[in-house]
Design goal:
By secondary structure, the protein is mainly beta. It contains 7 helices and 21 strands.
């Protein structure tokens, strides 16, 4: 979330709008006083011990898609910022996991959200293996060192930034995605660098406990002056009881987009199983996009799935109505990511096996369960991999 404008009072700042689910790039320089790109020696071990529990979230809404960060607080519970998942039709969560070189990917549903606290809790469809963070029981003190961990710019590589606490108890008024405003209070101010995609990630103290969850930053002091080193995190201690209460909640009804067709009542009935064997650094991130695309198809959110095509792909498909008319009974069931190769910095080639179920009249050769050997060309747009082309590689689909 990009924060700008001028102070409306000693403790309130008005902010500029940002797209739902992703922090927007700012005009101001990143970083600020006290920010370090390289971990101090005594921080390195702490980051290494907790990194397996830092999550990368990819979110699709009715109008856009984006990414953010989060933190494991239980085997299937991920805490993040409310603005990362607000308005979500589908959420995909990925963590590195405890086994080196492997990651875990799961769909998730929101079970608790409070926009005035800019916090949300999501429950994943499968347990995730990784470090379970503990929330601090008290706010840090001004001057305390902190580390901010997450996935800025949608990058698949974990990033850590370092700084100090510079203020406590701040209230900030954010513009929301509906043209209104929301005041978030009890914020911790830090000079650690915050970038798009960091939202929802943990801010930890020296003991590894979470003192805050990244909310946003200020980019302009006024219309002429850029601000530096002013970022905000939601207080973990002051919201811990609310988060604990959410853990027993049932999933909140997901957002339904105009023109969608409801195809399931169980929130996890349309889970796409994803298996990643490729070791390419972008494999998990490409898989998140493809899984969100398939999940949207399964849920009848064809517009959401269509938005994960590039404009060129959309032109070839001839519009969402024509494209979706071929999918009336089709469900994605499993996606194997076999091999990923880099074409350019913003283009990937992804080799997959996609398993679908469909009525015989829509299946190739009357198949009701098919395995499609598909190559996807994918293009990076605003930190999210979009589908630019899909074609069979060397063989026709076979029956399951």
């Amino acid at each position: 979330m990009t924060i700008g404008g001028s102070p409306a009072g000693p403790a309130t700042v008005t902010v500029t709008p940002s797209p739902p689910g992703i922090a927007q790039a700012s005009k101001s320089p990143t970083g600020g006083p006290g920010t370090s790109v390289t971990a101090p020696t005594d921080w390195a071990a702490e980051i290494a011990s907790v990194r397996s529990g830092v999550a990368r979230l990819q979110v699709a809404t009715c109008t856009s898609s984006g990414s953010g960060s989060g933190l494991l607080i239980g085997r299937n519970l991920v805490l993040t910022a409310a603005h990362v998942v607000s308005g979500a039709t589908s959420i995909s969560v990925w963590v590195e996991g405890n086994a080196k070189g492997t990651g875990l990917l799961s769909r998730a549903e929101v079970i608790g959200i409070n926009r005035n606290a800019d916090l949300a809790l999501v429950r994943t469809a499968r347990p995730l293996s990784g470090h379970a963070f503990s929330l601090a029981t008290a706010d840090p003190s001004i001057g305390d060192e902190v580390a901010l961990i997450g996935y800025p710019f949608g990058d698949p590589r974990l990033s850590a930034k370092f700084g100090h606490v510079s203020d406590l108890g701040r209230t900030v008024t954010f513009s929301d995605d509906e043209g209104g405003t929301v005041a978030v209070s009890r914020l911790i101010t830090t000079d650690a660098a915050i970038n798009p995609g960091n939202s929802g990630g943990p801010v930890i103290a020296r003991d590894g406990r979470v003192v805050g969850i990244v909310s946003g930053k200020r980019t302009w002091a006024d219309d002429q002056t850029a601000a530096e080193g002013v970022g905000w995190a939601v207080s973990a201690a002051k919201n811990a009881s609310m988060v604990a209460d959410w853990k027993s909640h049932r999933p909140i009804d997901r957002v339904s987009c105009a023109g969608s067709r409801e195809r399931a009542t169980d929130p996890f009935a349309d889970q796409v199983e994803v298996v990643i064997t490729s070791v390419h650094s972008q494999s998990a991130i490409a898989a998140q996009s493809l899984a969100l695309h398939g999940t949207a198809i399964n849920l009848g959110e064809y517009g959401v799935a269509y938005d994960l095509f590039t404009p060129a792909m959309q032109n070839r498909m001839g519009g969402v109505a024509k494209w979706s008319s071929m999918l009336t009974t089709s469900y994605w069931r499993r996606l194997d990511i076999l091999e990923v190769s880099t074409v350019t910095r913003t283009r990937l080639q992804v080799s997959t096996i996609l398993q679908t179920e469909q009525a015989a009249f829509e299946g190739p050769g009357g198949q009701t369960c098919s395995r499609w050997p598909l190559d996807y060309a994918m293009v990076l747009r605003a930190g999210v991999w979009h589908i630019d082309k899909a074609q069979l590689h060397g063989a026709e689909p076979t029956a399951c």
